[in-house]
Design goal:
488 residues, alpha/beta, Nucleotidyltransferase, domain 5
Length: 488
C-alpha cells in the first residue's frame, strides 16, 4: 500500500512543495515544485491550489506545513518529564518568560526526555496560537487539510538523517540557510540537543565589509552554540552538514573545514531516496522533503506537531468551559435545593406555630370560659393562675409561717391502723388545733385511737368527747380534738 505526503515550505522569497511516497520501507520523491514569492499575487493559497490543478500533485495525500522561522522558539530545559507536564499546563510556570509569547496564546511541545551529564534534559518548542491560526488562514485551500504543522528544524533533521544516516553515530552539527534565517542545530544520535534560529547572516556585504566577514560570523555562532551546550571545543572531524540554498558555496565549505576541523557534508536529497521527478533537485528542498518524511515516518523522526498541540489546547479550553458551566449548574442546583428546603422548613414552622396558637386558644376557653374580653391569651392565663395561687396559699406546700393541712392529714392517716375501721366524717384544721368527728365500732376503739394520736410528737392534748351510740346501729359516734405544738 502506497502512502503519500506533501511537504510545503513557505519562506520569505520561495514556496517549495515536495510530494513523497512510501511503499513499505522504500521512499520515493514523486514531484517537486518551487515558485518565487516576492510578488503580492504570489499567495500561499494560490500556490497550493496550483499544485493540484497545474502540477499533478495528489489531493488525497496528507499535507505537512512548516511554521515561519521567526514564529518558532526553543529552549533546552533541565527538568524531567513529569515536571515538564506541569510546565505545559501551567501558564504561570517558571518558563513563562523564556518565550516571547503571551501565556494564554502559548503552545508548547516537549521533546523526548534524555539524560546528559546526570541531568534530565529535553528540547521545548514554542509558538503562538495566533501565528498558527494565521498560517492556516493564509494557506487555506478548499478540500485540503493539514495533518502536520511543524517547526522547520525537525523536518531538516529528518531529511538529513534519511539521506546521511552516518551522522546518527555520535554528535553532529547541521546548518541550514535560506534568504531569511540560519538554523544551527546540534544532534546526538537520534536526539536534537539544541537549536538556534538566527536572522540571515549571508546578506549582501556593505562597501567596507567583505563576504569573508559573514562567514566569520557564522563560524563564531557555531562555536558559541557548541560551547554553550557542551562546554568544550568542537572535536575534530565532527560531522557538519550544510543544507539550504545558501550553503552550496565551495568557499564556505573550505572556510568551515579550515576553521572548525569538521567533516563537511553537503546535503544531498537523493542519497537514499528514489526520484521520479525529471527536474534537477536542489538541496533547498530539504525542509519540504523533511516534512513529508516526518508524516511518512512519525515513529522514526520525532518532532513537534502543533496541529495536535492546538487540538489539545482547544480541548482543554472546551473542558474548562464545560467544567465552568457544570460548576455553575451545580451551584445553581444546590442554591435551589437549599431555598426549597428553607421554604419547606418555613411552611412547617408556620404550621406548628398555628397549631400552638390554636392549642393556646383552646386551653384559654377551657380554663376561663367566663372571659369574653380576649387580648392576649397567655398573659391573661398567667394573671388568672397568679390569682388562684394567692387564693390557695393555705394549701401550698411552700407557704411561709402557715399550717400545712395536708401534712397534718398525712400524719393522722399514716398513724391510723386500718383494722380500727374508723370513718372520719368532718375535719376542721386551724392554726393551733384540729378537730375530727366520725364513727367507729365501739368507744374502746375511739380511746385506742386517742392513745395512738397522743404518741405523735407534733400533737398535744388529744381528747375524745361526744361518745354516743347511734340509733338503729351498734356503732358509736365520737369527736377528737387536739392542739398542735408550736414546732409542728
Amino acid at each position: 500500500m502506497t502512502k503519500r505526503a506533501i511537504g510545503i515550505d513557505i519562506n520569505s522569497d520561495k514556496m517549495i512543495a515536495v510530494q513523497m511516497a512510501r511503499r513499505g520501507d522504500t521512499l520515493c520523491l514523486e514531484k517537486t515544485c518551487t515558485r518565487p514569492s516576492r510578488r503580492e499575487e504570489d499567495t500561499p493559497s494560490e500556490f497550493i491550489a496550483n499544485l493540484f490543478t497545474q502540477h499533478g500533485f495528489d489531493r488525497r495525500a496528507a499535507a505537512a506545513l512548516a511554521m515561519p522561522h521567526n514564529q518558532i522558539f526553543f529552549k533546552t530545559t533541565d527538568s524531567s518529564a513529569p515536571e515538564q507536564d506541569k510546565i505545559s499546563d501551567n501558564p504561570d510556570s517558571p518558563y513563562q518568560n523564556d518565550f516571547p509569547v503571551l501565556s494564554d496564546q502559548r503552545l508548547l511541545d516537549f521533546g523526548s526526555d534524555r539524560q546528559l551529564d546526570n541531568k534530565h534534559k529535553s528540547l521545548v518548542t514554542a509558538t503562538s496560537q495566533s501565528s498558527l491560526k494565521e498560517l492556516l488562514e493564509t494557506t487555506r485551500v478548499s478540500g485540503f487539510r493539514y495533518e502536520l504543522i511543524e517547526a522547520p528544524v525537525f523536518a531538516l533533521v529528518a531529511a538529513v538523517k534519511t539521506n546521511h544516516p552516518d551522522i546518527t553515530a555520535d554528535y553532529a552539527i547541521i546548518i541550514f540557510s535560506d534568504s531569511s534565517h540560519v538554523i544551527i542545530t546540534i544532534t546526538h544520535k537520534n536526539e536534537i540537543i539544541t537549536v538556534r534560529n538566527i536572522p540571515q547572516w549571508d546578506t549582501p556585504p556593505a562597501e567596507n565589509q567583505n563576504e569573508h566577514n559573514n562567514y566569520d560570523n557564522l563560524i563564531r555562532e557555531i562555536e558559541m552554540t557548541w560551547r554553550s551546550e557542551m562546554g568544550r571545543k568542537i572535536p575534530d572531524n565532527t560531522p557538519l552538514v550544510l543544507a539550504g540554498q545558501h550553503t552550496t558555496s565551495p568557499q564556505l565549505r573550505n572556510i568551515l573545514r579550515d576553521n572548525l576541523n569538521c567533516q563537511i557534508i553537503l546535503y544531498d536529497p537523493l542519497v537514499h531516496i528514489q526520484c521520479n521527478d525529471n527536474k534537477h533537485i536542489e538541496p533547498e528542498i530539504c525542509i519540504a522533503q523533511g516534512l513529508s518524511l516526518r508524516y511518512l515516518h512519525p515513529e522514526k523522526y520525532p518532532g513537534a506537531n502543533f496541529i495536535h498541540t492546538l487540538k489539545k489546547d482547544s480541548r482543554k479550553c472546551v473542558n474548562a468551559k464545560t467544567q465552568k458551566y457544570l460548576g455553575l449548574f451545580l451551584i445553581t442546583t444546590i442554591a435551589l435545593v437549599y431555598l426549597t428546603g428553607l421554604l419547606i422548613q418555613k411552611n412547617r414552622l408556620e404550621g406548628q406555630y398555628q397549631k400552638i396558637k390554636n392549642e393556646i386558644k383552646q386551653t384559654f376557653h377551657q380554663a376561663l370560659p367566663q372571659e369574653k374580653n380576649i387580648v392576649n391569651e397567655l398573659a391573661q392565663l398567667d394573671a388568672a393562675l397568679a390569682s388562684q395561687r394567692k387564693a390557695f396559699d393555705l394549701f401550698e406546700a411552700s407557704a411561709i409561717n402557715s399550717v400545712k393541712p395536708l401534712d397534718i392529714l398525712h400524719t393522722i392517716s399514716a398513724h391510723t391502723p386500718e383494722q380500727l375501721n374508723l370513718r372520719i366524717n368532718n375535719i376542721l384544721i386551724t392554726q393551733q388545733a384540729a378537730q375530727l368527728s366520725g364513727q367507729c365500732a365501739s368507744s374502746t376503739i375511739a380511746y385506742k385511737w386517742q392513745r395512738i394520736l397522743q404518741e405523735i410528737p407534733g400533737f398535744d392534748n388529744v381528747n375524745v368527747s361526744g361518745l354516743e351510740k347511734l340509733p338503729d346501729s351498734d356503732e358509736v359516734q365520737f369527736s377528737v380534738s387536739l392542739t398542735l405544738k408550736s414546732t409542728y
